[in-house]
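Figure S4 source data
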Amino acid sequence: MRFGFALACVWLLVSATASAEPAPQLRLVSEHAVDGMRGGNLSGLAQCGQELWTISDRDDDQIYRLDTRAEPWQAEAVRIDVPPVPDSGLPLGLSSRTWAASFVRGGDLDFEGITCDSAGNRYIVSESHAAVLQVTPQGAASWLKISPMLVREARASGMLLRFNALFEGLAINPEGNALWLAAERESRGLLLIKRQQTVWDCDGRCVLLSEAGLEMQPAQFPRARAVSRDFADLSLFNGKLFTLERNAFQICRRDALTAKVERCWSYADEALQEQRRYPQAYGLAEALVVNADGAWIGIDNNFGVRADGEVRPIVWRFAAPEGGWGAKP
């Protein structure tokens, strides 16, 4: 009886997703291979002024400025001296698994997202430690002092419970005093903290959204199946929060204070063309920047070889949708 009820719940979740009106498709403008990343595994993008910056989840001691003047793009390493990581309140079991995994995969800090404020400070989220590193324009690195309520509330809401499924992306407002974080999956979620003198804390509640369940991969995906809902990155543009929803191959615009979905756009038609497919059975987009002209999406291929033989990380440029990102359905 319980098994039948569980199957019915899964069917309802998947059916609801499948019956939703298809999201309009974004148009691919350009595609750029990236050379020079020591650890490969491009896992975040940020636009700071006119420059694009990226990170690798295998590199703890450097971030990258992208030279986009010629093809392929060149990743120029910028060294950072990272101080010891503060205790974020994650349980010992998760921390121990992270420590053990770092010997196999490399990268104890597991950098998974990067963003910038208007002053040029870069903020980088460490998934493995649920912590945020600030790097000033001069290169000084320090960890934000974040209230333990962040992790406590996230876990109480069903997030940050699984190894390698913690914070996957972040976005900051131009003033540098409000920070959004994305919990990756099982359950995925969105959280908001604000700077209060020297400590970053919840403004009321930290959790804007906690969401479990499954959704169907797009029809363009070979042997599409129901997979966990997830977030892979965030971008803040014109006061709206944009979520990169990797398994659904879409970008969604959300209210920045309630996390309510306002509209979504798909990039499946372009990303899943035969020559661009990877052998992995899930989406590989990990990085997002949204601006007035369009969106940058970065691919972390985990050294996997694409159908056309490309093995380097890829950055796609998509045009803004007709009517702009603020367009109503």
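Figure S5 source data
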Amino acid sequence: MSDSSQLPKIIVIGAGGVGVIGALSLYYKGLSNVSLVIRSDYDLVDKRGYKITSCDYGQFENWKPHHVYRTVEDASESGQFFDYIVVTTKNIPDGPAHSAVSQVIRPLIDNNHKLGEGCQTNVLLMQNGIDIEKEIWNLFDRKQYHLNVLSGIQLIGSTKVAPGVIDQVGRDNLIVGAFERENKDAINAAKKFVELYHNEGKNCAEFDENVRYSRWKKLLYNAAINTTTALVGLDVPRCLEFGVDRKSTEENIFKPAMREIVAIAATENVLLDESLITFFVEITRHIMFKPSMCVDHEKGQLMELEVILGNPLKIAKNNGVQTPVLSMLYYLLVVAQGRLREKNGLLKFDESKAELVDSVQSL
């Protein structure tokens, strides 16, 4: 492999199951210089590396990318210009203010702006949801910062099962595209990332020609099924089987919610075929699978509620689409999220008055 210091520099933020395998994929290809921001496991990984069991790449005992950093701030002070800033953390706008994606990446973008002298910075959001790019555009002027924001939609089964231990059981499939379909620089950056990431015979990485369509399509599953499982605390098969006559969950929750997503997307001229509804209902019917929001809820962690459900409902309201099922799911999940926010110190409830005190943290 050539001198890694001369290769495109990529930094991955988020060292969970997805982020670590993402960094491994880039490192394995050998065409980029790979950095990883690690928080809780930094000391262990810096000393011993990761123990990885991967269905794509096999076994690793002491693996590390080219560089590891404890914080984004440490990385921004390294004197390096990062061509790609890859974000694999959960996107939770109603979480702590400092955890907002735009604030997390700000030190790196500011440092790139200082070092780059007109060089292009590419932010790749490998996250769920719709309209997640707008937060970044609202904070950074794309021309001033020479900034492209790219979309990454990933299907993978990978989990951090212990500190410094990653278990990947599901093949990595990634599509990368430009949120701005007319931006040639962003399109070229997305295609370049696919080249840097794709390992023939190992993972699958492709260019996404229509990011908006792909994100609405994934919302068919996430906005209907991911949300429902989080509310009831059950895997998908049990959600389906425990319904009235083993049908009501599918016929009265999943499918109507998905039809509402189809209707919202149609107001943006994104046409989702009705056959996708059946496809997504069936895809995990016979797999013992708990979607991400359900897992987060069980762990007492904040859910990606706003980007998966809140943002589509804002679009529906603006475009005059009726959403009785999605709205009910959302309103119930806002209450459930409130319990998680209280547990995490973001809300305070005065039991002596039986009412909510002003948020303890500005969000």
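The domain at 7-209 is CATH 3.40.50.720 (Rossmann fold). The mean pLDDT is 95.
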